[in-house]
Amino acid sequence: MDVTKPWVVDNELSIRWPVYTRANAAEVSGTVATPLFWTMIGGAAIEAQWQRALAEFGAFDVGEFRPDAIDIQGLVHGYVYLNLSHARTFGARMPGATPDLMDRTYLGDVKAPSYVPHPDDDRPEFAKRILATIDRVMAETSRPDLEEHRQLAEKLRAERPDLGTLRDDELLARQRTIMRQTYAPTFLRTHLRMIYEGSVVAGALDQALIPLGDPTLAVTLTSGLGSIASAAPNEAMWTLSRMIRESITLTAEFDFGPVELEMRLRDSGAPEARAFMTGFDDLLYRFGSRSTQEWEANAKTWESFPAIPLGMIDRMRLQPEEKNPAAQGRRLRAERDQAMAHVRTQLVDEPDQLRALEAAVRSVVLYSTAREQSKTNTVRVLHEARLPMVELGRRYAALGHFRRPDDIVMFREGELDGLIADPGGFADLVAERWAWFDELSEVEPPFIIETGNVPPITTWVRRKDPVIDVAVAGDVLTGLPACSGVATGVARVINDPEDAGDLEPGEVLVAPLTDPGWTPIFTSAEAVVVNVGSAMSHAAIVSRELGIPCVLGVKNATKRIVDGTVVTVDGAAGTVTVH
């Protein structure tokens, strides 16, 4: 397989904005992008909405972007990148920000090619528009649009037809209707705009806290918020885990092992098993859209792969009662109220500073909650669009056209009409693309690239290559503080939530990334360390909600920290000490 040529859906990189980074992109797209993902969900499908979201925010005009091209994102040998030069332009136009600040926000202490100003970067008219957005965002006290979207997503789920009865062309039509009429213009664009609105309130809080000289306050004042949509599955799973602990019958079934566990529970005539499965089915109905790689076309959603959430519940049943997410939330809210009372005492003679701080905290609370609700809404609608493709893949596998159901993701969205017309005529193409995909999956993409200067893929580090700088006793790895607290335990490196069964009580979860499909595992961990992430990332918000000490952005943590090593995680300092 010639992996030196562009992947089947790679796009041409921008000359106007030439520097790209895996920062943030790796958090939501850690693997090679499948053709169906990039043409149905990412790529051009998302680019147009992203451009409009930025224009609505006031930072860009849609006309600045290349027509019928992709500028904000990049796909290089199948790996998703975000445009760092574009973010630098945003920083140049944003009052109170700079291109260097955007570098620090995205990259931390990682060095990038020097910023080269462009004549169109610093334009006063954009600053005026952005200031108007900032004023609006900081004045908001609610986001009723997200509640409307939540109800729309629930309605779409409730009205889902029996996909098994639809014709092939009807399945494709359903996917396209949801993606083009509901998902992209309403849910996706709102979520993309909210990412930038959330950065406004996070920056306001950082500025308001400077006079107090305590960097840990930002975490404390934004913990235990309540009503975090992406933390809700943890609470539902916790309830189910307590049912197991209180039942000899359920405990015996889970002790017997995960193989065919769901079937055994459904076939059981025990009242406790029936009650448990009623609760579990409700969990799948409400949160079945959750998964890792949530934006991918072949995401292993909980609804399609119920063994994954069952495994998470199995780990939770081993936890003591003090790990109860509701109890943790009450503790964190008490600590937040106490910290805020202390701040008010400190600023009693500085009423303007106090008002600014209280306003910033209110905005961060609002947007942390709103951002997670927005993503939950968006993913739930996306799930309804993906399921027809899942059904089509299963159908063609059963008929012998596919070797496996997820062969469907090796097609570009525009090739699906041809597939339906001749479902048995693409076996060689699918096999070639899977072989190509597997080869690309063996390499680690560079963290930063430049248009016209992308290192040959033959020089990229291979995932199986040994890491030279493995952490040893006495080493202190640094990252971004996400949730305060100090915890010591055995490091358990887990690269896929399906391996959650390896996590034992008292251990520290070390993970490559943590989108919502990971977070129920947080409750079963003493602390969390992640390769990537940022202060307003999903992992940060959920760890603060659950009170789990967490450090994000620890580069190569899953490779540098040897499985079984004893470590101490200091979530406030952003450090991981190796013992």
Automatic annotation (TrEMBL):
<dbReference type="GO" id="GO:0016874">
    <property type="term" value="F:ligase activity"/>
</dbReference>
<dbReference type="Pfam" id="PF00391">
    <property type="entry name" value="PEP-utilizers"/>
</dbReference>
<dbReference type="InterPro" id="IPR051549">
    <property type="entry name" value="PEP_Utilizing_Enz"/>
</dbReference>
<keyword id="KW-0436">Ligase</keyword>
<protein>
    <submittedName>
        <fullName>Prodigiosin synthesizing transferase PigC</fullName>
        <ecNumber>6.4.-.-</ecNumber>
    </submittedName>
</protein>
<feature type="domain" description="PEP-utilising enzyme mobile">
    <location>
        <begin position="504"/>
        <end position="574"/>
    </location>
</feature>
<dbReference type="GO" id="GO:0016772">
    <property type="term" value="F:transferase activity, transferring phosphorus-containing groups"/>
</dbReference>
<keyword id="KW-0808">Transferase</keyword>
<dbReference type="InterPro" id="IPR036637">
    <property type="entry name" value="Phosphohistidine_dom_sf"/>
</dbReference>
<dbReference type="InterPro" id="IPR008279">
    <property type="entry name" value="PEP-util_enz_mobile_dom"/>
</dbReference>
